[in-house]
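Input.
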Amino acid sequence: MTDPILYRKRLIPEECVLLKDDTIVYRDAQIIVTAWNSLKPRMDLHHGCSCYYLAEGIKVSRFCKEDGSMLYWYCDIVDYDYNKDTDTYIVTDLLADVIVYPDGFVKVVDLDELVTAREAGLLSDEMLKKSLLRLNRLLETIYEGAFDKLLAPLATI
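Output.
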């Protein structure tokens, strides 16, 4: 398989960015694994890697400092549109996120953005439903002790 074209689409703030500098590390019908440098430099976040679980609608990312040490795992709830003719994915951030810290602490963030996006007409009822159901499945995976299975594709990066 050749490398697909990846876009990251956000609803808040509204933007669609070509991830032209992301390196595709692995790809099959179920996942896409990438390595990347931070788009907007920050004092803490320097680079990382991500695994897009296409059927599950989640993206699990390892966020790292410049020295390579891990900050935390950042899990985005996403949806995607795929154009087979151009081999292009537009990955839409469905706003709800989960952060898993190295000590195992789990934090759910940005749920307020779901309400803001729905009230502004940026998110349909169907997309809101997808976001919440995918968030619930991800949290069940974490609480059942199966999060390591989602991290496996990122272990060698």
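The two ends are 20 Å apart (CA to CA).
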